[in-house]
Specification:
Blueprint lengths: L9 H9 L6 E5 L3 H14 L3 E6 L14 H15 L6 E8 L9 H17 L4 E4 L16 H25 L7 E4 L20 H17 L9 E6 L4 E2 L4 E2 L7 H7 L6 E4 L7 H9 L2 E6 L1 H21 L9 H11 L12 H10 L12 H16 L4 H7 L1 H8 L7 H20 L3
Parallel strand pairs: 1-2, 1-10, 2-3, 3-4, 4-5, 5-6, 6-9, 9-10
Antiparallel strand pairs: 7-8
Helix pairs in contact: 2-3, 2-15, 4-5, 5-6, 6-7, 8-15, 9-12, 9-15, 10-12, 13-14
């Protein structure tokens, strides 16, 4: 079949695909505590391995925007797993866009040294699904010319060598350590969704083939051919994207030529990014057509934010003393306005339009703020208020109809935290159904 790596659960997807099954795995890219808790509880229900990813901007040796290094993130996820009763061994930790992306303003020598250290730390921390992304220009690259496939592959091969060295050191101290697998290729939709409405193009089949060819040639040139078996997927644009208020749904006919080209590369599958907000049917078709890894991130925190807003609306009706309310919606808006760095260059328009985007955009830039201590405190106050309140079933139906049905049928407790997690679980259900992991 091609690539098989004993011991890494990611290869089970490839093995099933090699047998002709339409198999895939969701990749939950998030650092949000309540989302991770919901994802792991969903995994408990079906006995699945769960793939949870951090990006190079979220988590790196300098802390990223979460303030966490790779070891910190691992421990963070493990603490949540221990609390939920999910076995740590069932968690696949992934590192996304590992490369010079956070260091693009630096020259190649400096950016690549930082990228190598970041990759080393991810692998040393036990991350076993590594996306090597070297597709971005650095400060001393020609700004008027695209990077050549060779340059991208060369930089990727340099990072893979560092990853392999780190794994050998890890195995020396942990003989049962699982060997990482690698994803290559660049993401066509920018991380977190498009900034503007723009023409979206499916990856050209020959561009995909050229990426694979360049990597194989560079691996051979660098004496790394034996490691090709650990490369299991290539990131492509299969025709999915989302912006502030629109979603480009997957159209099988648009990706037909790209997916047909995959048949020439046994042992590989596609990884699709920005699959958020796709319908269950669209997700299922993507898996059938070769997208074995379905990345989702903003849709998870969007669901949590939506549920928290619904709870806040109920709190406003149930808690008479205005000073005792959490004002979760208002606190989130206040903090985002005081700290505009994570939304200002993405949300355009009039002040009213920007306010609506801060609250309701599919891009969900609010996810960058949900770990803020002030917002976290407002959430806990919201939960405490509603724990003491008696939410009428009719009110629950008004604000959270999907959760109402679960509560009505005895499948879900009425508690506010459980209601938020169920909103996230509904997103997970679409991905689990598409990936046929039950």
């Amino acid at each position: 079949m091609g690539n098989t790596v004993t011991g890494n659960p990611m290869t089970a997807v490839l093995e099933r695909r090699g047998r002709g099954e339409a198999a895939g795995i969701p990749s939950y890219c998030t650092a949000n505590e309540i989302v991770i808790e919901a994802v792991l509880e969903q995994g408990l229900r079906f006995g699945d391995s769960v793939l949870i990813e951090a990006t190079s901007n979220q988590v790196n040796q300098f802390g990223g925007y979460t303030g966490m290094t790779p070891v910190d993130y691992r421990e963070y996820v493990w603490r949540i797993a221990d609390r939920t009763g999910f076995d740590r061994s069932g968690i696949i930790l992934g590192g996304d866009h590992l490369g010079p992306q956070p260091f693009q303003t630096q020259c190649e020598a400096e950016a690549m040294e930082n990228a190598k250290e970041m990759v080393r730390q991810y692998v040393a921390a036990g991350f076993t699904k590594i996306h090597l992304d070297t597709s971005m220009r650095l400060s001393d690259d020609d700004p008027g010319a695209p990077l050549s496939d060779y340059t991208v592959a060369r930089r990727g091969a340099e990072l893979l060598k560092v990853a392999e060295d780190a794994w050998e050191k890890l195995r020396a101290s942990e003989p049962d350590a699982v060997h990482p697998v690698y994803i290559i290729g660049s993401e066509v939709p920018i991380p977190g969704g498009a900034r503007e409405k723009e023409e979206m193009q499916v990856t050209d089949p020959e561009a995909f083939a050229a990426t694979v060819k360049a990597y194989r040639e560079v691996f051979s040139e660098y004496g790394l051919s034996d490691y090709w078996k650990y490369v299991i997927a290539v990131v492509v644009q299969p025709g999915v994207e989302f912006g502030d208020d629109d979603v480009h749904m997957y159209r099988r006919e648009d990706a037909a030529s790209l997916c047909a080209r995959l048949k020439d590369f046994p042992g590989l599958m596609f990884e699709g990014h920005s699959t958020d907000y796709q319908s269950p049917e669209a997700l299922r078709r993507m898996v059938e057509d070769g997208v074995g890894i379905l990345k989702v991130g903003p849709a998870l925190t969007f669901a949590a934010r939506e549920a928290l807003f619904a709870l806040c609306r109920m709190e406003n009706e149930l808690v008479d003393d205005e000073s005792a309310r959490s004002d979760y919606i208002g606190v989130l808006e206040k903090v985002m306005l005081e700290n505009p760095g994570n939304w200002q260059k993405y949300y355009h328009g009039t002040p009213k339009e920007q306010a609506l985007k801060r609250a309701y955009s599919y891009s969900d830039r609010s996810r960058y703020y949900m770990g803020n201590p002030e917002i976290e405190a407002a959430m806990q106050k919201l939960f405490a208020n509603l724990e003491k309140a008696d939410i009428p079933m009719g009110m629950l139906h008004q604000y959270m109809p999907l959760q109402y049905a679960q509560v009505r049928d005895g499948r879900l407790a009425m508690g506010p935290r459980a209601l938020v997690k169920d909103a996230v679980r509904a997103v997970c259900d679409d991905y689990n159904g598409a990936a046929l992991v039950r």
